[in-house]
């Protein structure tokens, strides 16, 4: 018998809800505010079938390009053959989450900009802001511990 290649084929474990996380989504899911240009993660919630994206997009990060009353337009990169295409899909908010993938980079940029401004103002001296590979640990010598002979105490007897 041939295998049907339906829209939700091979999603048995991908869309499965975690232990004790079944049922409707939390209210915070619906109260999250999205803006154009935000980075979002597409994480499909299997308990809500409306506005569910194709399983290919599960786990992908995209950029918000459109906001509708119930759905958010997300632009995602998709590899097609030997090229990467920009795909625009509309996904309901239950299947989205604000991405934190660029937070470390943004914090590093802000910190380096502060250091550059301090150098320009003359309050600090020049510091190389480039990230560097961690150097190997410094060498050290292990000395053998001093060996002490331990002998048992001779038995004196219980009765004196």
UniProtKB/TrEMBL annotation:
<dbReference type="GO" id="GO:0005840">
    <property type="term" value="C:ribosome"/>
</dbReference>
<comment type="similarity">
    <text>Belongs to the eukaryotic ribosomal protein eL21 family.</text>
</comment>
<keyword id="KW-0689">Ribosomal protein</keyword>
<dbReference type="GO" id="GO:0006412">
    <property type="term" value="P:translation"/>
</dbReference>
<dbReference type="InterPro" id="IPR018259">
    <property type="entry name" value="Ribosomal_eL21_CS"/>
</dbReference>
<dbReference type="Pfam" id="PF01157">
    <property type="entry name" value="Ribosomal_L21e"/>
</dbReference>
<dbReference type="InterPro" id="IPR036948">
    <property type="entry name" value="Ribosomal_eL21_sf"/>
</dbReference>
<keyword id="KW-0687">Ribonucleoprotein</keyword>
<dbReference type="InterPro" id="IPR001147">
    <property type="entry name" value="Ribosomal_eL21"/>
</dbReference>
<protein>
    <submittedName>
        <fullName>Ribosomal protein L21</fullName>
    </submittedName>
</protein>
<dbReference type="GO" id="GO:1990904">
    <property type="term" value="C:ribonucleoprotein complex"/>
</dbReference>
<dbReference type="GO" id="GO:0003735">
    <property type="term" value="F:structural constituent of ribosome"/>
</dbReference>
<dbReference type="InterPro" id="IPR008991">
    <property type="entry name" value="Translation_prot_SH3-like_sf"/>
</dbReference>
């Amino acid at each position: 018998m041939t295998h049907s290649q339906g829209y939700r084929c091979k999603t048995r474990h991908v869309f499965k809800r975690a232990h004790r996380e079944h049922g409707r989504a939390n209210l915070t899911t619906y109260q999250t505010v999205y803006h154009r240009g935000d980075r979002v993660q597409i994480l499909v919630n299997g308990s809500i079938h409306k506005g569910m994206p194709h399983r290919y997009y599960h786990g992908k990060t995209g950029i918000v390009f459109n906001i509708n009353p119930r759905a958010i337009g997300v632009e995602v990169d998709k590899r097609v053959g030997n090229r990467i295409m920009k795909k625009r899909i509309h996904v309901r908010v239950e299947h989205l989450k604000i991405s934190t993938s660029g937070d470390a980079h943004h914090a590093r940029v802000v910190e380096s900009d502060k250091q550059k401004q301090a150098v320009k103002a003359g309050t600090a001296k020049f510091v190389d802001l480039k990230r560097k590979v961690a150097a190997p640990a410094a060498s050290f010598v292990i000395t053998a511990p001093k060996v002490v002979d331990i002998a048992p105490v001779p038995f004196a007897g219980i009765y004196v």
